[in-house]
User: Which sequence fits this backbone?
């Protein structure tokens, strides 16, 4: 049945398409398309009214051109005209064009909605389906408003045709996803659930997608679907392959429906009702049994369909994680697939087994397949399969097989694909640390990592090995010896030089007794690498040298000689030059005692979560990596990041911080927005590294001072332009700069910046007249409690000039520090004489608690976990209010960003909603805050919900923000 | 759910594309080219599922034609893989060989997948509207 010969085929279109196909070059294609576009345009503009057929043909051509990747900016009206045609094909092309190309052009939407309304009430099932498809495809707010109440009725009505029900179910799903507030299921719930019992399998297939989505959102209301799904599943599974006629695919009864039923059940815990549960277990067993039966067909489609169900069943078994018998059977089944000749099956088996490995019931069973998995890692020809094998090895690793797995992963690294090397390195590093019984093995492993894949060893990894060596004195001598040996290789990676420099600088003395590694030999070895290294590494080495002078006074002359030479002391790099000069000076004037104190061995690092793990989590997203014990082990004391001054409130928040470290996570694993202070002249980086944690708040824009720390960019708010004058304090909640006040005489502009719990505000007083202001004074006061324990320093750095000349502007700077949270605003009082009359003004300064926000990026998973943790009623503040300003997405986004929080994408399942997260930094503590804003465009209302670790903050923020939108 | 479906030939020309989650036009061409490159670079013995950015590609090759879908994590890969075959079989049943007739291919696709969800898998029911249509036209 060649399509062109069909009665309704459009010859012009076929010719056009074949022209395009025959174009030899892209240019020729574009030329042909432009010609066609011009032709269509002229036809549409022409005087002659086009008949339906021509309209359809041209719209169809436009559609084809669009498909080729060209933007189409006309023809929408003609497409809308087609909607009212009585011919199916014309109507269909019209709807297709609109589904594919419509933008929310409100003018058209009204016309489209009208056509849809007519078709929905036409009672012609094919027309109804087209209209429903269109709503589902466009899914805009306007459509939801027009049809959301109508569709559930169509869906459950007794006289609706099956095909219409199918379309209605998916249409409703779309509307529910885009505008959940408009889709009110209440009275329909039970009838929708009962669609699972519909005798028509197509209806069930469509309805189950809807029910799954609804169950995820309202599990309790849809609970009854569990027993219905189980009985439906049981009927399918136990049926003979001939029972379901057309829904049988290569002898497998209703494979897609079965998968969806099994997926729906994964929204719920195991059924409580014994009978239902029994029936379900029976189904699962039958599915597992069928996998062992001889296939009913040799076709691969048969086994694929069967296995699709099997994998879904195994997912359900893993989800329940309560039936040891089934878990072990699932594991054995997957074990068979590991050696299957179909690559797809091997891939999926590795993937499923990865989740199985984390169940206590099947962990041991998974481990028995270690040899097969290692073999897969070595021999699979497909990188994505090898990747899964590596994931699985990582998941099945425990104390008993760690050495084997780490060794295999290391040897694989030598030939591994570049795309997965970095991740492999992280995994090896984590496993080596987690299961290190003796730390010499750990050190060996990490040094091997650097040797094999130095380029892929990120800072986190080598920072970590140094942290561990510093903290464990039993391994220091071994580490020094090993790193010394590693450095003797003729070509060694720069990361090795870094680790070597650091460790020998600290612990070189432990191996100095051996004449083969005497101090001078060590120094010469390090220095032989010096010239090949980058600036940061050289800086690190210089620090190591000064440490050598302390450890081995006999090297002093040699090292001073090196420091003194022109290439150091006159180095064009400021940092290197400074170090050389300072170290040289330090070594020549300081007494041995002073030197020993300044260059003392590094104190242990505080215990904290491995920054490597954080990095891996970030790479893979949470959930992808299951290493629960490691996390627990490190969570002692509730401090992950080792931030010494955090209050108890921050403990929970820091958990989410940990999974999203700043890109330049430093050796301390601490996110310090304020750059570290300049190196004290007497100390090298090795020391500064320690000091930097003790005194992180030194707010100086100094040059970053060492080779270990890379500076986190200061998180300043971008300066926004002065906006229109407005006295309202509220105007400044989401912005930092602007005109605070203006009358005929005076204009006050404001510019402010905040970092952590500190802020600086610049006030600009402009005299708008041509006459001098005399006795100009300003006072800032903190009413009531604000002074004593809320806002601490709010002082002008210098008093303002007493005279403001006509037309002149003077500036005043205020420094602000937030001690604890607050809700009042400080007052600014201004007095001056203008032509003899005393003017007195009082204004509220726009310092609000949200200014001390630091944004926190987090994943959906983390967000909701945190959200749940903050579930005490007083922690939440909620307000529903009418929109005062434009509800435009971009405007809202800009406001939310201005608020200081991180605006998180892909967290809220409803894309219309906004969620934000941030930490308010006060001197005493950090307050984690989560925000959710749900706009309702139709009602022009918002619902704002805040959850903070401190109740007063929730309330205050809610108050502030309700005025903003 | 299914995020998009593409039919692309070896030369990288898109024969059919359907997006179930909005993607800007400017980004489509790039995405399509990228996806094709990804599939073309793979050998026959490699597996049919590829991690791609934050979702997964499931693809099948029929001679010079690739059918590719992007799916979210929670989709059953094998069932999608077979869904593609089912779709191609339906096309095969309707057209004598794979032949391009844009509107009809779209009708068929719409009957099978709506909004990124499987809606009908029974071949004769998928084709019912078209068969009715052809009868009307012939009569």
Assistant:
């Amino acid at each position: 049945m060649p399509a062109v010969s069909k009665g309704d085929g459009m010859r012009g279109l076929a010719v056009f398409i074949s022209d395009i196909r025959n174009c030899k070059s892209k240019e020729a294609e574009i030329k042909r398309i432009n010609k066609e576009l011009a032709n269509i345009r002229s036809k549409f503009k022409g005087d002659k009214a086009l008949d339906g057929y021509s309209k359809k043909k041209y719209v169809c051509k436009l559609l084809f051109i669009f498909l080729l990747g060209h933007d189409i900016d006309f023809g929408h009206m003609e497409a809308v005209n087609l909607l009212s045609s009585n011919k199916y094909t014309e109507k269909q092309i019209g709807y297709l064009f609109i589904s594919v190309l419509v933008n929310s052009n409100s003018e058209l939407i009204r016309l489209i909605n009208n056509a849809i309304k007519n078709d929905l009430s036409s009672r012609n099932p094919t027309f109804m389906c087209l209209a429903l498809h269109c709503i589902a495809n466009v899914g805009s707010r306007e459509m939801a408003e027009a049809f959301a109440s109508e569709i559930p009725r169509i869906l459950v009505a007794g006289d609706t045709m099956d095909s219409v029900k199918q379309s209605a179910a998916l249409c409703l799903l779309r509307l529910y996803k885009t505008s959940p507030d408009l889709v009110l299921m209440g009275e329909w719930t039970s009838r929708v659930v009962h669609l699972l019992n519909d005798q028509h399998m197509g209806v069930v297939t469509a309805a189950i997608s809807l029910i799954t989505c609804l169950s995820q959102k309202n599990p309790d209301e849809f609970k009854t679907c569990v027993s219905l799904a189980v009985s439906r599943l049981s009927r399918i599974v136990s049926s003979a392959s001939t029972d379901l006629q057309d829904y049988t695919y290569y002898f497998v009864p209703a494979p897609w429906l079965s998968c969806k039923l099994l997926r729906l059940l994964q929204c719920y815990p195991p059924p409580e009702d014994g009978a239902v549960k029994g029936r379900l277990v029976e189904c699962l067993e039958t599915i597992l049994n069928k996998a062992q039966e001889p296939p009913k067909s040799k076709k691969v489609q048969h086994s694929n369909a069967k296995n699709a169900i099997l994998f879904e069943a195994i997912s359900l078994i893993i989800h329940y994680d309560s039936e040891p018998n089934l878990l072990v059977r699932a594991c054995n089944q997957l074990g068979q697939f590991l050696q299957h000749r179909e690559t797809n099956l091997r891939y999926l088996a590795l993937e499923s087994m990865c989740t199985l490995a984390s169940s206590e019931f099947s962990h041991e069973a998974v481990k028995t397949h270690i040899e097969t998995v290692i073999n897969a890692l070595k021999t699979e020809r497909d990188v994505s399969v090898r990747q899964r094998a590596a994931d699985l090895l990582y998941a099945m690793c425990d104390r008993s097989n760690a050495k084997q797995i780490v060794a295999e992963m290391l040897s694989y690294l030598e030939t591994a694909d570049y795309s997965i090397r970095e991740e492999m390195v992280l995994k090896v590093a984590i496993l080596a640390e987690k299961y290190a019984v003796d730390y010499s093995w750990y050190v060996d492993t990490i040094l091997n990592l650097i040797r094999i894949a130095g380029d892929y060893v990120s800072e986190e990894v080598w920072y970590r090995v140094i942290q561990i060596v510093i903290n464990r004195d039993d391994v220091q001598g071994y580490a020094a010896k090993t790193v010394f040996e590693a450095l003797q290789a003729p070509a060694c990676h720069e990361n090795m030089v870094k680790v070597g420099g650091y460790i020998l600088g600290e612990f070189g003395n432990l191996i100095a007794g051996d004449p083969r590694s005497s101090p001078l030999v060590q120094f010469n070895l390090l220095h032989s690498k010096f010239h090949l290294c980058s600036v940061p590494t050289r800086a690190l080495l210089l620090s190591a040298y000064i440490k050598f002078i302390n450890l081995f006074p006999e090297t002093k002359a040699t090292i001073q000689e090196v420091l003194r030479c022109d290439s150091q002391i006159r180095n064009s790099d400021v940092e290197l030059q400074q170090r050389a000069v300072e170290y040289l000076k330090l070594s020549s004037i300081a007494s041995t005692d002073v030197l020993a104190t300044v260059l003392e061995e590094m104190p242990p690092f505080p215990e904290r979560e491995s920054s490597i793990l954080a990095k891996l989590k970030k790479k893979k997203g949470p959930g992808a990596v299951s290493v629960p014990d490691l996390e627990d082990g490190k969570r002692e004391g509730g401090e992950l990041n080792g931030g010494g001054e955090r209050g108890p409130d921050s403990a929970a928040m820091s958990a989410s911080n940990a999974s999203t470290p700043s890109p330049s996570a430093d050796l301390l694993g601490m996110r310090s927005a304020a750059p570290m202070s300049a190196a004290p002249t007497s100390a090298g980086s090795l020391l500064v590294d320690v000091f930097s944690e003790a005194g992180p708040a030194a707010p100086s824009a100094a040059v970053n001072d060492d080779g270990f720390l890379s500076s986190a960019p200061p998180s300043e708010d971008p300066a926004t332009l002065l906006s229109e004058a407005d006295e309202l304090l509220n105007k400044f909640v989401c912005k930092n700069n602007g005109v605070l006040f203006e009358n005929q005489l005076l204009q006050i502009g404001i510019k402010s910046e905040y970092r952590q719990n500190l802020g600086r505000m610049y006030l600009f007083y402009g005299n708008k007249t041509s006459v001098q202001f005399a006795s100009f004074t300003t006072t800032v006061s903190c009413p009531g409690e604000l002074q004593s324990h809320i806002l601490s320093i709010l002082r002008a750095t210098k008093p303002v000039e007493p005279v403001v000349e006509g037309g002149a502007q003077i500036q005043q700077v205020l420094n602000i520090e937030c001690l604890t949270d607050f809700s009042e605003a400080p007052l600014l009082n201004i007095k001056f004489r203008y032509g003899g009359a005393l003017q007195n003004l009082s204004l509220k300064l726009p310092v609000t608690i949200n200014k001390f926000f630091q944004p926190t990026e987090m994943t959906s998973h983390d967000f909701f976990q945190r959200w749940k943790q903050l579930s005490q009623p007083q922690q939440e503040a909620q307000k529903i209010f009418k929109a005062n300003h434009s509800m435009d997405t971009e405007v809202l986004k800009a406001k939310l960003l201005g608020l200081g929080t991180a605006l998180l994408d892909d967290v809220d399942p409803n894309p219309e909603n906004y969620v934000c997260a941030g930490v308010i930094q006060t001197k005493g503590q950090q307050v984690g805050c989560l925000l959710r804003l749900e706009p309702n465009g139709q009602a022009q209302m918002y619902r704002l919900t805040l959850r903070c670790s401190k109740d007063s903050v929730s309330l205050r923020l809610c108050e502030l923000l309700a005025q903003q939108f | 759910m299914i995020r998009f479906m593409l039919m692309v030939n070896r030369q990288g020309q898109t024969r059919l594309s359907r997006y179930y989650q909005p993607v800007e036009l400017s980004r489509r061409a790039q995405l399509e080219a990228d996806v094709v490159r990804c599939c073309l670079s793979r050998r026959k013995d490699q597996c049919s599922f590829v991690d791609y950015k934050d979702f997964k590609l499931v693809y099948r090759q029929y001679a010079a034609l690739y059918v590719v879908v992007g799916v979210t994590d929670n989709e059953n890969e094998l069932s999608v893989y077979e869904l593609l075959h089912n779709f191609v079989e339906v096309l095969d049943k309707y057209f004598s060989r794979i032949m391009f007739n844009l509107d009809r291919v779209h009708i068929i696709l719409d009957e099978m997948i709506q909004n990124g969800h499987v809606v009908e898998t029974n071949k004769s029911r998928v084709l019912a509207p078209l068969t009715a249509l052809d009868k009307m036209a012939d009569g």
Summary: Chain A touches chain B through 69 residues (CB under 8 Å).
